[in-house]
Amino acid sequence: AIQVTQSPSSLSASVGDRVTITCRASQGVRNGLGWYQHKPGKAPKLLIFAASTLQTGVPSRFSGAGSATDFTLTISSLQPEDFATYYCLQDSNYQWTFGQGTKVEIK
Amino acid sequence: QVQLQESGPGLVKPSETLSLSCAVSGYSISSGYFWGWIRQSPGKGLEWIGNIYYNGDTYYNPSLKSRATLSIDTSTNRFSLMVFSVTAADTAVYYCARLGDYNRWHFFDFWGQGTLVTVSS
Which pLDDT tens digit goes with each residue over B45-98? Predict the structure, then answer.
């Protein structure tokens, strides 16, 4: 099964900061990776799919990049509502694997 | 708008079977798409459990070692999860979700609110 390594596991940032989270797949998954935002007590929310396509309604400060094994999620200017845990999810050969998560906290 | 709602017992005894159902509204599951289950154990990350296609094809996370079974009932517009021989490690919030698709890629675009299942005697 394909493993996904997400980093960092947590980070502290201030409102207005640029934040980048990385996922690395153990094998190439082409563009089969998405990003989710998860807040306590809520369902995860899809932000990005197919590596770089912004889900409808998601603010443009979120962007995704990468292909094959290396992917990034960037928040260009962190807003108060962005403090949450972020997960990547790879989709390859009808097997799905989440990254370990990155908790974005207020500095 | 697609909506999903999980239901089932909140407490299951060790070695017994966890059984959850997901009711879908706003879309007929017989029309297409994958439907899936994801869980989050206390203090841990999200874990994919398995997906079922509208035609009944299933795909599972190998880490569950064949303890999970998904089924679909198009007559009631529901799909279900069973996890056999549960232990405390199966205590988690369980989410059901739909997988949207774009080209050949699939992603969870609509989610239920989640239901907590505790395994304890």
Answer: 999 999 999 999 999 999 997 999 999 999 999 999 999 999 999 999 999 999
Per the CB < 8 A criterion, the answer to whether B81 and B20 are in contact is: yes
Contact call for residues B10 and B17 (beta carbons, < 8 A): no
Amino acid at B96: C
Are B86 and B11 within 8 A, CB to CB? no
Nearest chain A Cα to B45, which residue?
A100
CB contact (8 A) between residue A32 and residue B109:
no
Residue A91, chain B, CB below 8 Å: the answer is: yes
In tens, the pLDDT along A10-50 reads: 999 999 999 999 999 999 999 999 999 999 999 999 999 99
Residue A77 near chain B (CB below 8 Å): no
